[in-house]
Amino acid sequence: MTGRDIISISDLSIEEIFEIFGAAERLSKAVTGRGIDLLKGRVLASLFFEPSTRTRLSFESAMAKLGGTSISISDPASSSLSKGETLADTIKIIDSYSDVIVIRHPKDGAAKLASRFAEHPVINAGDGAGQHPTQTLLDLFTMWKEKKEISGLNVGIVGDLRYGRTVHSLAIALVRMGANLFLISPEELAMPSHLLRAISVESSPKISNSLERIIPNLDVVYATRIQKERFPDEAEYLKVADSYKINAKLLSKGKEDVIVMHPLPRVNEIDSEVDSTKYAKYFDQAKNGVPVRMAILSKILGEEY
Amino acid sequence: MEELKIEKIKEGTVIDHIPKGNAINVIKILGICSDSSASIGINVPSSRMGSKDIIKIEGRSLSATEIAKLSMVAPKATINQIRNYKVEIKSNVDLPERVIGIVRCINTRCITRAMEPIKSEFYIVASEPMTIRCIYCEIEMNGNMIHDNII
Ligand SMILES: [Zn+2]
Fold first, then answer.
1. Cβ–Cβ contact B4 with A under 8 A
2. pLDDT digits (tens, 9 = 90+) for B121-149
């Protein structure tokens, strides 16, 4: 994978996804404590045209653990570098300072553009088009690590399946890897029909508006943020938010070993009483972001571990 | 071959096998208005297509870019170059692998719509009906959405 750009999860084959998982496992064991020198002298440039503190910190932590360095522009949108300058020009300059670029940008397809103008690999850390491949990879990695395989897994995605666009790439990846999808949302936040068609080519997801009814089937509950601004009024929002809230009572109706995931930050989709139960895996999921990003960085920079 | 109810031309181009109802779109795309005269056959019976549209343009041949644009509207069209009332060269419209710089992405948030030094670029997803996908923002466009956004 040396030199590869990571723009969309669909750019990666299933084999490559598993290769990344393997490297992430090995690296997470290797870097406990002091870290290693695998990427010594290599420079990661993080360009966040839109704030996403934890994604940026997770990349920078991964780079540091591998012995590399990170440079970043604190506020690229207002820096002199980008005033009146095209993104293409900014990328060419930053590319000449670094070995890999991590970009987050509000415009659809911005990361793809960056990859065309950079000679070094570019990693998409979220763009307007809803691709956020390293998030998808760490979600998949968490399921794989917890459940040993993804094929045959019953995964319920709950909440905002309409606007939550990173969920769309997760759903497509899960189907490609042979998981059985359950899509659980209120009607107004249902998955768009064109996506449903794309997913249904390989399997037919089960659709429901009741998590309570579906939960006995699930191995994984993947909750997403339900945003207030998607609803006409507060009362409507509260009604929906309440009926999709995940708590200990609900989980007791599920399989003994069901796990709960969430990309975080959560608002109140998961009751904090769940945090201390065996079901809760969302903090492990966030933690997995570092080894997964270490694996990606080492692979595209040509340093197999 | 079926009898055409429109006049033969001396020099120019005959675009045949245009899907019926699309002659007007072709005229629009090729910008045939002031510099050349054209006759149009609409709903002409066709053994291959049931019925089709056909356009005869006097005194004009098509550039590669024009043929690429034509492929978005009439992917199965035949182009006949006429010299002295005879078909000199007959060719089919080839669908390009990528559609570059001839269709504007319909998504206003797409990076190709910003002031960046890139051309629009699409993969062809299907040719019947014509469906293309932006390589940048991944949005899919088809039918009139494409016709209305030919640059
Ligand atoms: Zn686009």
1. no
2. 999 998 888 899 999 998 999 988 998 99
Q: Does B136 touch chain A (CB under 8 A)?
A: yes
Identify the weakest region by mean pLDDT among A163-167, B12-16, B58-62, B97-101: A163-167
Write the CATH number of the domain with boundaries A9-131+288-300: 3.40.50.1370
Interface list for chain A against chain B, based on CB atoms closer than 8 Å: 8, 86-88, 106-110, 112-113, 116, 128-129, 131, 194
Q: DSSP letter string over B35-104?
A: S--EEEEEEEEETTTEEEEEEEEET----HHHHHHHHHH-TT-EEEEEETTEEEEEEEPPPPSEEESSB-
Which position has the higher pLDDT, A197 or A19? A19
For A108, the closest of B110, B117, B118 (CB atoms) is B110
Q: Which of A108, A73, A78, A64 is nearest to A91 (CA)?
A: A73
State the CATH class of domain A133-286. Answer: alpha beta
- pLDDT at position B2 over 60: no
pLDDT tens digits, residue range B25-70? 898 888 876 667 888 888 888 888 789 999 999 888 899 889 999 9
Q: Looking at the complex, does the CB of residue B118 fall below 8 Å from at least one CB of chain A?
A: yes
Domain definitions of chain A by residue range = 9-131+288-300, 133-286
Do the first three CATH levels of A9-131+288-300 and A133-286 match, i.e. the same topology? yes
